[in-house]
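Why run this: before we spend reagent on co-expression, it is cheaper to look at a predicted model of the complex and decide which construct boundaries make sense. The entries below are exactly what would go into the expression plan.
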Amino acid sequence: MDQKKDVALIHYLMILPGVGFIILFLGSSIFITVAQSFGLISVTGTSRFTLLNWKTLWERETIDSVLFSLKMGVLSSVGTLLFAFPVGLFLRKGGAGKRFLASLIKIPLFIPALVAAFLILNIISYHGIVNEVLLGLGFIKEPLRMLNDKFGWGVVAIQIWKNLPFVLLIVSASLASIRDDIIDAARNLGANNWAILFRIYIPLAMPGILVSMILMFIKAFGDFPITSVAGPTYPPSIALRMRNTATLFQEWDKAAVMGVIIIVTTLFMTWLYSRLAQAVEGGNP
Amino acid sequence: MSRLVLKNLTKKFDDVVAVDHVNLEVEEGEFVTLLGPSGCGKTTTLRTIAGFYVPDEGEVYFNDRLMNNVPPNKRNTAMCFQSYALFPHMNVWENIAFGLKMRKIAEAEQKKRVQKALEMLSLVGFENRKPAQLSGGQQQRVALARAIVTEPDILLFDEPLSNLDAKLRVQVRVEIREMQKRLGITSIYVTHDQDEALAISDRIVVMNQGRIEQVGDPHTIYLYPKTAFVAGFIGIANIFTGRVRERQRNRLLLDAPFGQVWVQSEGMEARVGEEVRFSFRPEDMVLYREGMANRIRGTIVHAIFMGDSTDLFVDVQGQRLRARGGNVAYGGDVLKFRPGDLVDFGVEETAFRILI
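The model came back. Tokens follow.
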């Protein structure tokens, strides 16, 4: 009996550093953020409960930032997936150059987002390589605005470049787990390539597709470095606005509201993912 | 339904010749088994018929149509895989209906045919289950239903029973055979299990190292093996080489390592002094009775009780021979044998087969 207790104690001690750290720092900072958004535990003024900070939700600028970040989240996750899926399919079977391609595509994984943003900056900026070459060749009279464009395509492009290997890793793992004889069986039963793609590959890779899209969304939605370098001058992403609100305007309580928005959106997406995953795995029409 | 013709079929993987100039004709509605050890080319042959491989040489015909470059999805074959290869994300109904959907069969007709297949394979009530919620035997039946529902020209089986336990295997192979007879679909069945091949086939094609060793009905394959490989692979055989000492019309006297035996020559043109390979089955090595052509005296080395029979390992002049006696038919005589016993066995001269 005593020995059993000892083992249980050791198990708790083993998980303590990891779990304890999360509970202590993540839990406390989330608590403080939420509290500050209601004017409590304020770092700038007197602490007292108020809903005033939340009025920022109705301000045009906040709404623009949230919408912009949502747009970046959706476009980046969909875009990355569209690029990663065909590569994953190729890597599943492979042919000549499979290993080379697999290593080549992992390079962005080792480059920090900010560095990646600056790398791409050199290529697509107003006086970047692409514009200079096009100008030099006489294809265009004036440089194209590819960076800091109003829509945010520059951000999406960098997000895709940066996160392709990450999404590819997840998607190709779920594609690789599909057994060859299932594909053979489908072909044998009369399925052409399109039918195999839509009825076999995509549904069977769906758990991986979902998880990579959600993670990608969360990354791009809360992104700070890439939008700050390559994003439009207006609106800033919600993370960028949060930073500005706190450090430029010294409105920490209002910034906390934006922090809560990011957290809540992230939690909502995670919940959505678990619902979707459930529907995919246990779903019967 | 189709007639299947393979002409000089050859398939190589890099330098390895997996299938080597195979010629075979399978009649409409016939059940033919490709039998051989792993790596003999039987599965490659099957997958070439299905269209997963393009032959390097030779031709595949369904009736008179050359199929070499027809992709698998346009061949109208249906394959049962060793792993069943059911679609894990679809329920039983969707799995069975898949081939019909791909053929763009009308919804009402689909329903009718799937229902019929469900009834035929006693799967009614399991329509909404996912493959993971079924037992191995049920998964196997779903795979069968999925195959037959498309009314294929040729049914292809790739060791479909090897994942089932022994009892279920016997039961399902009977079901497969009955269903195939009822539907009359030309069937090619791959297995390495000789009992299965003997039990299920109209004809057996014994393959070894990419080549066909012998084609024949189960009876012929077992009783009249042509090569040492066939004699040794199907059932148990005593295989020896002997020199012809004497020749009388249709019988030969051979000097075998375990003594002299009289053997029927079956039209063999063996001359005195030549060496011939021959075989005989353990069940043909019986207790010696007066008047038998050959008497073989040996010492029992092992006697293994098998329930309905006893397997004997017999030492005859330093050679190891196998004998098998039915425990009931022989009045329990074989049950009495103990290692070390000296026993007189007899083998009729008609029991010997001269091998190529």
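Chain A has a mean pLDDT of 85. The two ends of chain A are 51 Å apart (CA to CA). Bring this page to Monday's planning discussion.
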